[in-house]
Design goal:
285 residues; Rossmann fold; two-stranded parallel sheet; 12 helices; globular; binds NADP nicotinamide-adenine-dinucleotide phosphate
């Protein structure tokens, strides 16, 4: 049986849909506070558990014959407290994998590269290091910016802007988008792989302006682009940072100096051809 954390999130929903299609045996571990309507409607097996509490995790899993854990749950723009909780959760799942001789598939991020600076990346890196040192069978996927069905952040915000407004702000930032179907494909292929760390990113590094142009073209929208000087955004981000909310500033810093992820190893191992952005965005518009 496959256990999944973070199944109600963007990537999780897509993964669950695919697992259902493939009639795989799986169970989702969710928070007590999570909205479980989706699981009930879809008849999906799930258990409520606090991943930071080892006893609860053990109790929840003891009766299940789990061989793999796909660990997606995490706060995306975490406070330090959330980042520490996420690290604790990852450590608990590693412990369970050790005891059950199971495998862990861990959703990590391109921000683990020390070239970037963020609390999120720092804690994902700590989790990666812990997993690697544990000796368990693992696949770590360092994922770039994901887009596709069920996205409520990332590219979907740009799509909403292009669809809903005549004037669209353009900032000098870049992304290396990857379609969620490719991410799900790689997660599923990881079920049968040995230890490894892989970069998961599309082939194109694109400026925000290119992304907006492609979306406007695909959605048949005539928009007027308004270039926002960096100093205005940075001013706002600095103001937030001064009251302890550093996430926007970190995001701006990282996306303004984005360097491409090398996916040669990933393509070789998974024999995958990443969906191009123009094609991938068609289904979302
Ligand atoms: N999306 C991307 O572009 C991207 C890029 C790189 C890496 N990743 C990684 O991929 C994974 C999934 O990302 P996503 O975009 O699907 O995230 P998401 O949409 O924000 O979903 C996160 C999921 O994790 C759950 N969660 C968060 N904190 C939790 C906690 N302390 N205990 C239990 N569950 C918790 C949430 O549960 P509730 O439903 O209860 O809120 C939600 O279901 C994350 O680990 C993320 O870091 C994502």
């Amino acid at each position: 049986m496959i256990l999944i954390t973070g199944a109600l999130g963007f990537i999780g929903r897509n993964l669950v849909e695919q697992l259902k299609k493939e009639k795989k045996d799986f169970c989702c571990l969710v928070r007590e506070t999570s909205d479980k309507k989706f699981f009930k409607e879809e008849g999906i097996s799930h258990k409520a558990v606090n991943l930071g509490d080892m006893r609860q995790v053990k109790d929840a899993i003891s009766s299940l014959n789990a061989t793999v854990i796909i660990h997606l749950a995490a706060a995306i723009n975490p406070t330090r407290r959330q980042a520490e909780q996420d690290l604790k959760a990852a450590k608990n799942l590693v412990e369970i994998c050790k005891q059950k001789k199971g495998k862990l598939i861990f959703a990590s991020s391109y921000l683990t590269d020390t070239y970037y600076k963020s609390l999120y990346g720092e804690y994902k890196r700590k989790a990666e290091d812990f997993i690697k040192a544990s000796g368990i069978n693992h696949t770590i996927l360092r994922i770039s910016t994901v887009y596709g069905a069920h996205d409520r952040r990332n590219v979907s915000i740009i799509i909403s802007m292009v669809k809903g407004y005549k004037f669209v702000p353009i900032v000098d930032l870049s992304i290396q988008p990857v379609h969620v179907n490719d991410v799900v494909k790689i997660i599923l292929m990881s079920l049968n792989k040995g230890k490894g760390v892989y970069n998961v990113a599309g082939d194109e590094i694109m400026s925000l302006e290119q992304v907006v142009d492609i979306i406007a073209n695909q959605c048949n929208r005539k928009i007027i682009k308004i270039r926002i000087p960096r100093f205005i955004l940075y001013g706002y981000a600095w103001a937030l940072a001064l009251i302890g909310k550093k996430q926007l500033l970190e995001q701006l810093n990282n996306l303004s100096k984005l360097r491409g992820m090398d996916t040669i190893m990933t393509k070789k191992e998974f024999k995958i051809k990443f969906i191009g952005f123009k094609k991938g965005i068609q289904s979302v518009c």
